[in-house]
Specification:
Layout (H helix, E strand, L loop, with lengths): L8 E2 L1 H7 L4 H9 L7 E4 L2 E5 H9 L11
Antiparallel strand pairs: 1-3, 2-3
Length: 69
């Protein structure tokens, strides 16, 4: 039996939910540079790396140069 899949990248709504905030608040913090920018997979499809969001919460990513995008 296959185990549960752990996402490595998520959309804006899920990323905001992971950070316990509204999508609007999440997007404002991304725009202000307080949270990592999404990666673009293809035209119109953006995702946030779960590892980048976790780094922010763990205090491991202190500035944009340290994110892995």
């Amino acid at each position: 039996m296959m185990g549960r899949i752990t996402p490595i990248a998520v959309g804006e709504k899920t990323a905001a939910k992971m950070m316990d905030m509204t999508p609007g608040d999440f997007r404002r913090l991304v725009g202000a540079g307080c949270l990592p920018s999404p990666i673009t997979l293809t035209s119109g499809i953006e995702r946030w790396r779960v590892s980048d969001l976790e780094s922010v919460l763990n205090g491991n990513a202190m500035n944009e140069d340290e994110f892995t995008w």
